[in-house]
Amino acid sequence: MEDVAEGHWLAFQQGRSGERYILGGRNMTLKELLEAVAAATDRSAPRIRVPHILALTAGYLENAFSTISGREPRIPLEGVRMARHKAFVNCSRATRELGFHPGSVADALGRAAHWYIANGYVPHLRPGVAEVA
Questions:
Q1: Helix, strand or coil, per DSSP, at residue 107
Q2: What is the pTM of this model?
Q3: Closest CA to 30 of 52, 1, 15
Q4: Is 20's pLDDT higher than 90?
Q5: Which helix (H) or strand (E) holds 34?
Q6: What is the DSSP string of 35-102?
Q7: Phi and psi at residue 23, to the nearest 5°
């Protein structure tokens, strides 16, 4: 997250008006991303792959139930839709023109995951995981 904030600052300071810069790091598949989050939190990554149509159906049903019950949906439809596609990007232009250097994806995921844990967004943790900063 800090990398993206720095990239925005660099674009403000050094970027050319009207140009766009990709502030990405390492390209990862969804499986790699989930494994990195699991490693950062000492939890297991999902082991089964759900067919897209099943995930999409569950998302629609859960979103409809959430609308009725008045609570936030736990299966974001846009997330399900995006998970189906690979969206690899290249930040070399931001590196070359702005001096942007993204940090470790694993470190950033770890910081984000531990923030969610520390703020009570992840239930049923193993003892000691929430204490990691």
A1: helix
A2: 0.69
A3: 52
A4: yes
A5: helix 30-41
A6: HHHHHHHT-PPP-SPPPHHHHHHHHHHHHHHHHHHTS--SS-HHHHHHHTS------HHHHHHH----
A7: -105, 60
Through-space distance between the first and last CA atoms of the chain, rounded to whole angstroms: 15
pLDDT digits (tens, 9 = 90+) for 57-112: 999 999 999 999 999 898 999 989 988 888 888 999 999 999 999 998 888 888 88
Ordered by where they begin, the domains of the chain are 2-118 (3.40.50.720)
The pLDDT confidence band at residue 124, using thresholds 50, 70 and 90, is: low
Q: Which two tokens stand for residue 70?
A: 């008045």
Tokens of 47: 């082991």
Compute the distance between CA of residue 91 and CA of residue 23 in angstroms, rounded to an integer. 6
CA-wise closest residue to 22 among 116, 100, 105, 119: 100
